[in-house]
Specification:
Blueprint lengths: L6 E4 L1 H17 L2 H16 L14 H5 L3 E6 L2 E8 L2 E9 L10
Parallel strand pairs: 1-4
Antiparallel strand pairs: 2-3, 3-4
Helix pairs in contact: 1-2
Length: 105
Amino acid sequence: MQPQKSKLVFLEPAKDDILSTAAFHLEKVGPISARRITDTIIDTIDRLADFPLIGPKHPDPVLAAKGYRKLVAAEQYVCIYKVFADTVYIYRIVNGATDYPKLLK
């Protein structure tokens, strides 16, 4: 018997982040890059359905105390998420080089 998969819920800011990332890559590099980066991000995040705790607790102590986890999704992009019971909530997908923790505090 296979373990039950977790449900993935992309919150609106995370959906917007994916669209913004795709648009950035489309403008700066081209359609192949845009497709590749978004496919990689989505494929990586899809792994959370089977392994919801694969990403460690967020290294920022304030975010960690709030239950946030961090998963490197592609190159410099990170997925910030929380797990509640059998559901994984995707909060943001951001460039890890930015000051993104302020978006979640």
